[in-house]
Amino acid sequence: RCCGNKKGNGRMIPIFLGKSGNRFSRQDMAVILYRYTEKNGISLKNENTVQTFTDASEIASYATDAVTAMQKAGIINGRSGQRFAPAANASRAEACKMLTILDRQIP
Fold first, then answer.
1. Nearest residue to 105 (alpha-carbon basis) of 26, 49, 48, 43
2. How far are the Cα atoms of 51, 69, 74, 84 from residue 103, in angstroms, in the given order?
3. Are 63 and 86 in contact (CB under 8 A)?
């Protein structure tokens, strides 16, 4: 189990990565979490100023708002060289970190 909701209310579904055919790009992970917050009326914190990633032009148009919101909320960060690496697979560690930070922001 990667990580789940410590409150036991069923709002956060564990995500398993690493099995064949079950991978998410970093930008898609941001979109999934962003849509989850929108659907469930969760207000994200604005903990960071907007970071301009050196590869921002590679972020798909459908993911731009989600990446920005997740980055501002401190849920997702860039990689080395101020890159976001939008098409790179989110590692299990990254996914678990994102879910854990999001879970802490849910009232």
1. 43
2. 22, 15, 12, 22
3. yes
Q: What letter does residue 13 receive in the DSSP assignment? A: -
SS3 (DSSP) at 91:
coil
Residues 6 or more apart in contact with residue 74 via CB below 8 angstroms: 45, 47, 48, 101
Q: Write the pLDDT tens digit of every residue in 70-93.
A: 999 999 998 998 999 999 998 888
Q: Which residue has the tokens 């991978």?
A: 23
Lowest mean pLDDT among 10-24, 27-41, 59-73: 10-24
Helices (H), ranges, the chain: 26-39, 64-72, 92-105
Q: Which of 25, 1, 43, 20 is nearest to 90 (CA)?
A: 25
